[in-house]
Design a protein that fits this description.
Blueprint (H helix, E strand, L loop, with lengths): L28 E10 L3 H12 L4 E4 L15 E2 L6 H8 L1 H25 L6 E8 L6 H13 L4 E4 L12 E9 L2 H14 L3 E3 L4 E7 L2 E6 L2 E10 L15 E14 L7 E4 L5 E6 L7 E12 L7 H14 L6 E12 L5 E5 L2 E9 L5 H16 L20 H14 L19 E7 L2 E7 L5 E5 L10 E3 L4 E3 L6 E2 L5 E3 L16
Parallel strand pairs: 1-2, 1-10, 2-7, 4-12, 10-17
Antiparallel strand pairs: 3-6, 4-6, 5-6, 8-9, 9-10, 11-14, 11-15, 12-13, 13-14, 16-17, 18-19, 19-20, 21-22, 22-23, 23-24
Helix pairs in contact: 1-5, 1-7, 2-3, 2-4, 3-7
Length: about 525
């Protein structure tokens, strides 16, 4: 009997994951196409769909299954940028803040139009979003955000409190015409539409490298090659760039709790605060016949690989929910997800810095993945089709981190400090000290070994060196994974890649004696 968990059964499960998406065969051999899209989440599928709608021949590949990455772990809301309009205005100027607002509005509008055109049943609804402050000290920030958002062309109103809640938020801002949906039902509809347009999808096909052959780009996979005129890397964080993009953004884990509430007891609004830590809330209904709804509350973020036992973060979110929503019942779901935080607060979408002719990237979603990734699909479709796009300079992946230099230096210092783990003694002295179902790093001579003990007490040993840039991985007790604290790569307990930028699995190590 093998008690080693696999990628689909280990870790947390989101409220969306009961939705079953179609699976596709792996690619074997060679093929040619107009555009190769790498990544089967909202960024990749939206880009593939838009290009196929324009008549382009498009092949999409994913290392796992459609929706198996971060799209299935989002809270699936469309609201203003996480880094606030006044922060963007201070850093980039009022014109660029208006462009951010425009891109967010167009992205939400595009999702709505695709749903109508393709008749996708994915629980999309427009609703108001409310930003409030947990303390009176934050009221000044609300005033600054109000002025900046209005200056950016956003419809926003000052309110004495958010309506219909069991607690008083105090002064808040209402952002009208925001939205939410079921992300995997939406992906399912995109898949069907993309296939109708003549697109092709290959699952279990990891892209390992992108090279040039004249004007063509060659995507090398596990067991094949794809020759394309253009390549779009939509993998949450780029795998094809070892350093440049990863010095300008950092990976963060965010945590979500899904709690039952009586149907109709909580208003259908989006809600988030400006605290640190901050919380964000939405509502979803399991089905029409259900007598309860699921209150989806998230927050308690931290850098990837820098909290080995993050279960307390679920407890903190649950405690906050029960303090503010006395009708809260059982906790039905707990899950975590990952996003990339750009140093200057604005995402990256456009031509890849290392090959800016016909390789494109979408990354740096900063907690606004559904909106940002859709905007990225719009911009990259324009670029591939030879059209101008006014957001090009704003979101340029080649831009310097000038506007976010303090944050850039802070993140760089944090990353460099992680390499000091090579000098430590490890988490425990021997595998015998590791509880069944848990993992820890053990030093063996000059090596650091990542050891997982399965439920039967058998040890599974891997090199603790992340295959991206050699940082020592850290155990994640919630997701049962090995996470890199430097650039956000994640690996399963058998060393397989769960999240880039790493492009190779962790090396298996022989460990004796067996415990």
């Amino acid at each position: 009997m093998n008690s080693l968990p696999n990628e689909s059964t280990s870790g947390s499960t989101s409220v969306w994951m009961t939705t079953v998406l179609p699976r596709f065969p792996a690619l074997h051999g060679k093929l040619e196409t107009g555009v190769c899209v790498i990544g089967g989440g909202i960024a990749g599928l939206t880009t593939a769909y838009l290009l196929s709608r324009e008549g382009k021949a498009v092949v999409l590949v994913d290392a796992g299954d459609i929706g198996g990455g971060e799209t299935g772990r989002t809270t699936a809301h469309f609201f203003p940028p996480d880094d606030r309009y006044f922060v963007i205005e201070d850093a980039f100027g009022a014109d660029k803040a208006r462009q951010v607002a425009e891109s967010f509005q167009q992205a939400t509008g595009l999702v709505e139009s695709i749903i109508k055109k393709e008749k996708i049943d994915c629980e999309f609804e427009r609703l108001s979003g409310y930003l409030f402050s947990l303390t009176s000290d934050g009221y000044a920030g609300l005033d600054k955000e109000f002025d900046a958002a209005r200056g950016a062309g956003v419809e926003v109103h000052k309110k004495e409190r958010a309506p219909g809640l069991s607690f008083d938020t105090g002064p808040c801002l209402e952002f009208v015409d925001q939205a939410q949906f079921h992300p995997l039902k939406y992906l399912n509809g995109l898949v069907e539409a993309f296939l109708r347009n003549g697109g092709s999808i290959y699952n279990q096909t990891r892209a390992l490298d992108i090279s040039s052959h004249g004007e063509a780009r060659i995507v090398t996979t596990d067991d094949g090659k794809i020759e394309a005129h253009a390549v779009v890397v939509a993998t949450n964080t780029p795998f094809n760039d070892r350093l440049v993009m990863h010095t300008k953004q950092a990976g963060y884990r965010t945590y979500v709790v899904g709690i039952r509430v009586p149907k109709g007891s909580v208003p259908r609004i989006l809600l988030w605060d400006n605290g640190d830590p901050y919380y964000y809330v939405r509502l979803t209904t399991p089905d029409e016949k259900s007598e309860h709804e699921i209150l989806v509350a998230g927050g308690a973020d931290h850098k990837v690989g820098q909290d080995e036992h993050p279960a307390h973060r679920y407890d903190e979110i649950e405690r906050w929910v029960r303090q503010h929503y006395p009708m809260a019942g059982s906790v039905d779901f707990r899950w975590s997800g990952q996003y990339m935080q750009p140093a200057d607060g604005v995402g990256y979408m456009g031509r890849n810095p290392m090959d800016n002719e016909n390789v494109y990237v979408i990354t740096g979603d900063s907690g606004n993945g559904m909106t940002h990734c859709t905007a990225g699909a719009i911009l990259i479709t324009d670029l591939i089709m030879g059209r101008n796009n006014s957001w090009l300079d704003l979101y340029d992946p080649s831009r310097k981190a000038t506007h976010g230099m303090p944050e850039f230096l802070k993140e760089l210092g944090n990353t460099l400090s992680q390499y000091g783990d090579w000098m430590t003694d490890g988490d425990v002295d021997s595998p015998q000290q590791i509880a069944c179902g848990e993992g820890a790093v053990v030093r063996k001579g000059e090596k650091q070994i990542a050891i997982y003990r399965d439920d039967e007490g058998k040890t599974h040993a891997l090199s603790a060196a992340c295959t991206h840039l050699g940082c020592v991985v850290s155990w994640n007790a919630v997701e049962k994974s090995w996470d890199c604290p430097c650039h956000g790569s994640r690996f399963s307990v058998n060393g397989q890649i769960l999240h880039g930028p790493a492009a190779k699995p962790l090396e298996a190590i022989q460990w004796a004696p067996e415990v």
